[in-house]
């Protein structure tokens, strides 16, 4: 195992819901860290966009009860049933992955975004000038 492999395995990202009933730890490097501007993500987050990090499901340990709701036929949103905090998203067509909401992390500054998706649905008053790649829809 190389030193960089060991460093990737050593990365830990802890988070929780608002009330603390659900806690999690993700280990290793995320696949990507995206900001989504689609209408479903805006609605589920109650915000102008949805920021999340995608991890292999095997790299995320979750403690506590999780509630689930389908926001589309393929996408399931997972949240705390006590306080309602949105925590995760998972696709049925890609069961090996789980997305973690950046706002639920204890320290979200450790996972800077890699790109913006669904910018065709971005709110008009939001100006993106962070230099990140922007995709009008989901990149291929």
List the helices and strands and how they pair.
Layout: H1 3-10, E1 12-16, E2 23-27, E3 32-36, H2 39-45, E4 50-56, E5 60-63, E6 67-70, E7 75-79, E8 86-91, E9 97-101, E10 115-117
How would you spell out the order of helices and strands?
Answer: HEEEHEEEEEEE
Major pleated sheet: 7 strands, mixed
Q: State the separation between the terminal residues, measured CA to CA.
A: 32 Å
Shape: globular
Strand line-up across the major sheet: 6-7-8-9-4-3-10
| Radius of gyration, taken over Cα atoms and rounded to an integer in Å | 15 Å
Structural class: mainly beta
How many DSSP E strands?
Answer: 10
Helix content: 10-25%
Count of runs of 4 or more consecutive helical residues: 2
